[in-house]
Amino acid sequence: MTPSPAGNPRKLSESSVRIEPSNATAPSAARQPRGLAARLDRFFLRSLRGGYPSQLRFEERASAIERTAARFPVPRAAATALEALRRLEVSPVDIWHGSHIILRGDQGRMYEAWRSGARPRISSHYRNVPVQQYEISLGKNGALLFGLTPEGHTWLQTERHMFLLRRPLTLLEHTQDFLEYETIRQSIGPFGRSPHTERRPVEVAAADLGGLWP
After folding, report:
1. Is residue 23 in a domain?
2. Tell me: the pLDDT tens digits for 83-99?
3. How confident is residue 111, by pLDDT bands cut at 50, 70 and 90?
C-alpha cells in the first residue's frame, strides 16, 4: 500500500461501514452561479490547480480542496462515490488531483455499485482488460473514471475534463489534458496534478466491504 505523505494509513477500520445513498442534487437542478459568484468560482479553481503538495503542505492542501469542492454541486452518483472514498479515508488531495487509486481487495464491488449511475467510455488505461470502463460526471469539475484491474480490483481517478465525443470543445479540453500528461507524466485532475499514475498508484485496503452497500 502506498504510504500517505501525511501518515494517513488509508485503511478501512476493522468494523465495516455502511454508506447511505446521497440526496445531492445534480448541477442542472441547482442554481448556477453568475456574475461575481461565477468569477469567484473560477478564481478558486485556478488557485487550486497546481502540483502535488509536499508532506509539510499536504493537510493544508487537503483542507483547501475540501472547502472549494463544497462550493460545487455534483450529481447524486458522484456524491455517493465521493462519500464512499471519504469513508475509505482516501485523501481529498489524491481524489481531486487525479491520483490513480486502486481499491485493493474489493473484488470489483465498487465498480458494480457505481456503474448504474455512470456512462460507458473508453480510455488508455488497462487496455488488456476486456471490461467496460465508466465515467461519472463531477459537474463543473470534470469526471470520475473507473474500471477493473487485471486482478479484478476497482480502480479510479478523477479527470479535469469529461470525454464527450458529441461535444467538440470538451473533447478538445480532454485532449489537451492528455497531451499535458504525455509531457509531464503526471495525472491531470480537476484541482491539480499527481505523480500517482497507473504505474505508481495509490493503493487502498478495501477488502472489508461487507456492510458498505445495502
Report:
1. no
2. 999 999 999 999 999 99
3. very high
Measured on CA atoms in the order 27, 118, 51, 8, is the torsion positive or negative? positive
Number of domains comprising the chain: 1
Q: Which of 75-84, 120-129, 151-160, 195-204 has the lowest mean pLDDT?
A: 120-129
Cell numbers that stand for 186 in this block: 503526471
In a domain, 12, yes or no: no
Strands 202-205 and 192-194: unpaired
pTM of the model: 0.71
Distance CA 199, CA 116 (A): 28
Q: What are the cell numbers at 173?
A: 479540453
Report yes or no on 64 lying in a domain.
yes
Displacement of CA 95 from its chain's centroid (Å)? 4
What are the residues whose beta carbons fall under 8 Å from the beta carbon of 80, sequence distance 6 or more?
19, 21, 22, 114, 117
Q: Is residue 44 part of a domain?
A: yes
Comparing CA positions, the residue from 133, 138, 160 lying closest to residue 85 is 138
96 in Cβ contact with 188 (< 8 Å): no
Cell of 136: 461519472
Residue 39 domain boundaries: 30-205
